[in-house]
């Protein structure tokens, strides 16, 4: 990656050509190179968002090992599993840092008063917008980049995920160091290092989000988002729109990239 480092300087503008070049190089690099490049480029104006899934466990560990100190946050919908909150506490203790809690404007009760009980059943898109999409947008409004754990193999809608892409919804650069990894690769790493993870994965939950919208799936933990929004065709909460849907064209960036 020496060649790559020579090409990038902090605050350099990310032209579409540079982005294509970077993504091509990251295809044969590893997550560490992506993280280090991102840190050299954005510094602490970059943040990692996690839902405490396996990819997040991997990325938090790699940041810690690399000595890369950036803010880490999670979207607390107030509807997460106890196991998820306990895992957050465990991570904070293990790595000795605080994970920022990003919350919706409305409590669950206030949301019920305004929109009716169990909005997640009647209109999950609106519920996700209120409890995840809007809080995320607010939180990222003063950031230049955010790191996510999404991977191409997780779902059809994520198959075009790039390592570095423009996120027009949040007006930031989105960094996906694990874009090309499979679920097995992430899990093998977690087990080889004895990293903490959500115990619900061992109880048949491949993907874990809010309690009302998460169900266990048949079979063992796998690579998909099985068990989320069962009974509907919804597969995403709206914070990770497919690359082509977001950009109209892959890797299209705004002119100044903040
Ligand atoms: S995952 Fe379900 S409960 Fe959570 S914000 Fe979305 S619709 Fe609401």
From TrEMBL:
Q: Where in the cell is it found?
A: Cytoplasm
Q: What class of enzyme is it?
A: oxidoreductase
Q: Which NCBIfam families match?
A: cysH, PRK02090.1
Q: Which cofactor does it need?
A: [4Fe-4S] cluster
Q: What is its main location?
A: cytoplasm
Is NAD tagged as a keyword? no
The pathway to which it is assigned is: Sulfur metabolism; hydrogen sulfide biosynthesis; sulfite from sulfate
Gene of this entry: cysH
Instruction: Report which superkingdom the organism of origin falls in.
Output: Bacteria
- Catalyses which reaction(s): [thioredoxin]-disulfide + sulfite + AMP + 2 H(+) = adenosine 5'-phosphosulfate + [thioredoxin]-dithiol
Compositionally biased spans, kind Basic and acidic residues:
219-237
Annotated GO MF terms: phosphoadenylyl-sulfate reductase (thioredoxin) activity
Protein name, per record: Adenosine 5'-phosphosulfate reductase
Q: Give the enzyme's EC designation.
A: 1.8.4.10
Q: Which Pfam families match?
A: PAPS_reduct (PF01507)
Q: How is the cofactor bound?
A: Binds 1 [4Fe-4S] cluster per subunit.
- Region Disordered: which residues? 216-258
Catalytic site residues? 237
In this chain, [4Fe-4S] cluster is annotated as bound at 127-128, 210, 213
Which keywords does this chain's UniProt record carry?
Cytoplasm, Iron, Iron-sulfur, Metal-binding, Oxidoreductase
Q: Function, please?
A: Catalyzes the formation of sulfite from adenosine 5'-phosphosulfate (APS) using thioredoxin as an electron donor.
Which residue numbers delimit the Phosphoadenosine phosphosulphate reductase domain? 53-216
The family annotation for this protein states: Belongs to the PAPS reductase family. CysH subfamily.
């Amino acid at each position: 990656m020496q060649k790559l480092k020579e090409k990038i300087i902090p605050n350099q503008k990310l032209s579409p050509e540079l982005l294509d070049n970077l993504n091509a190089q990251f295809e044969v690099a590893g997550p560490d190179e992506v993280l280090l490049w991102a840190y050299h480029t954005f510094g602490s104006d970059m943040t990692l968002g996690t839902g405490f899934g396996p990819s997040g466990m991997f990325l938090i560990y790699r940041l810690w090992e690399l000595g890369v100190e950036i803010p880490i946050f999670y979207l607390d919908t107030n509807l997460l599993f106890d196991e998820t909150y306990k895992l957050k506490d465990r991570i904070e203790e293990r790595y000795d840092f605080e994970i920022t809690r990003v919350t919706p404007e409305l409590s669950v009760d206030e949301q019920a008063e305004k929109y009716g009980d169990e909005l997640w059943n009647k209109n999950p898109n609106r519920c996700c917008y209120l409890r995840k999409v809007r809080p995320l947008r607010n939180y990222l409004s003063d950031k230049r980049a955010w790191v996510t754990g999404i991977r191409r193999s997780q779902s059809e809608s994520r198959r075009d995920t790039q390592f570095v892409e423009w996120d027009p919804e949040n007006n930031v650069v989105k960094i996906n160091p694990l874009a090309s990894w499979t679920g097995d690769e992430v899990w093998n790493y977690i087990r080889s290092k004895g990293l903490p993870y959500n115990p619900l994965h061992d109880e048949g939950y491949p993907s874990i989000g809010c309690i009302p919208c998460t169900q266990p799936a048949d079979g063992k933990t796998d690579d998909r988002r099985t068990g989320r929004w069962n009974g509907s065709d919804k597969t995403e909460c709206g914070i990770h729109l497919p690359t082509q849907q977001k950009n109209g064209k892959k890797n299209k960036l705004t002119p100044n990239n903040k």
